[in-house]
Structures are given as C-alpha cells and as structure tokens.
Amino acid sequence: MNNRPLTGIGVLVTRPAHQAGELQHAIEEAGGNAVLLPVIDIVPRARTDIKADLESLPLPDIAIFVSANAVSFGLDLIDNDRCQIAAIGPATARALAAADVRADIQSQGGFDTEHLLASNALQHVGGKTILIVRGRSGRELLAETLRERGARVDYLPVYERKTASPDAGTLKKLEKVWRNGQIEAVMVMSVASLHSMLELLPAYCMGQLSKTRLVAPSIRVIQTALERIPGLNGILSPGPGALDMTGALIAGLRTDSDTDHG
Length: 262
What we know:
This protein is α/β, with parallel strands linked by helices.
C-alpha cells in the first residue's frame, strides 16, 4: 500500500495564512506539494465597535459561534455562564475547548448550518433570544430558520473577510508552477473563498481550472464553481478537516486512475 499517495501531486491551498498549516502538513505527509495562496484575509473588527454592538443587544439565551474565527474574536465578550454556547462544527467546538469552554449545543454528524439546525436543542426555541457570532456577512439560513421557530435572533459581527492582495511576484510564481504542470488540485473551503480565488488568479490559471480537481467540504462550493467553470472536476470532502480534505483528494485520484485503466 502506498503510504504517500500524493507523491508528485501539487495542491493549491487557498485558506487564510494563519489557518493553512494543518492542511499543508497533511498534504505533505501524503507526499504532495502544498502551494499556498491565501485568498482571504480575516480582519478583526475594532473591539470598541464590537462592545458597542453587544451592549445594544439583549442578553442571549444561546450564543452560536459559526467558526473558529468567531471564537477567536468574540468568545471573551460573551458571558458563557449566563447562556448556552453552540458550535456549528467540530473545528469551532475545538476552538471553544481550547479556550476551556464546552459547547452545550453541537451539530450531530455534520459541520454546517443544516446539521446544527437539526440538533434537538434548537428545535423548540420559541421566546428565546439567540445571538449569532460571525463575520460581517454570511448565510442567512441559520437566522431565518430560528426566527421561523419563534426565536429572536441577533447578529454580532466580530470580523470581516477581505479578498487578499498577493503581490505580483507571488502570482507570477504561481502561474509558472501551474504552467509547469505542478498544480493538479485546488482546495477551497467556502463560497467566499471561491469568489476571492477567481478574482485573484492570473488568466492562465483561470483557464486551467476546468482541467483541475477542486476539493471542497460543501456541495454549495462545488455547485457554485461549476456555474463559473463548466467541466470542472469537483470532489466533495466529507468534512473541512485536513485529513478529510486530503483523503477526499486521494480517493478522487484513485477513482480517476481506475477509470483511466478500466
């Protein structure tokens, strides 16, 4: 059995710089070459602005953290002794645990909004006040559904996502690597990251995406990519974790190999 199944495979990693390390390590452990191009910068909002927003809102019965970044920039402002804490997925729950806070409510068997909404604790929330701690923007499904169930829902934005600004040298180097046939897969974690990547990639690289595997943990990302890049080979990962993403790519490569030799 090949213990380094990504040997000779170049993988473009688009995660923010401070979050790319685990995925880079998993790719390289499997023998691959991780090429880093952070396409989104995570920028915390001013603490005074966050505090002012929070002071204008009622105390929540439940505070939902939608990402590890939400935990990093917002957890210390929430009195977790006076409300329940919810995590949208395992990465967010781990970020809470690292801060010595246990998630009272978690997604069961998944990592997205739909799975969190399926949890028993969020089925009967009529009359409750729920605070969603998140970035400046995001999906509205969570708030809309909880409001339909009778809850008051407020947002507390604690950071912003901004398209990164790689320098010309970085993009030129990426194009050279791609022209040399050294990028065979791209890993994209969210629709926002996809849009930023498409905005940043040099024209040659954009033209190669239809021949490149795109690994994502959400069918929404793949569907959105297919709308922009017909013919793209989308690979759905079972989760956003580094081993999930790397394993999905390995399985996709094996499937392609079996098809080629079938």
